[in-house]
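Request: When convenient, would you put together a sequence paired with its structure tokens?
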Amino acid sequence: MTDRAMTDESLSRKSARELAALIKSRAASPVEVLDAHLAVIARVNPKLNAIVTLVADKARAAAQAAEAAVMRGGEVGALHGLPLAVGGEARAAGASDRLAAARLICACAGRFARNNANEEHRA
């Protein structure tokens, strides 16, 4: 999608607003953004243990679909192509909270991880 693939981790340090603008303008692809985030996870998660479930294959498929939509020139949402890590509370919360999380995930490229937020509060 870009002349020079952004394979370093610099994309992982950009805000959601910056990433969305890069994706919409085709300066970065959803796959590149995902790869940058996965690289950071691979580097730091062994010490932090912040990501407890990683579904990189599903996220890659979602990012590829998001990229195809951008390339078609179709209308895309504000969070289109952004990877999303969902906290543990989304799984343990009530139905309306799960629905809200599902809607947010659909607006993005796809859920790629579940972090350990509030993990200690689960029964």
Notes: The first helix runs from residue 16 to 24. Residues 30 and 81 are 5 Å apart (CA to CA). Strands lie at 51-54, 83-86, 110-115. Residues 9-121 form one domain.
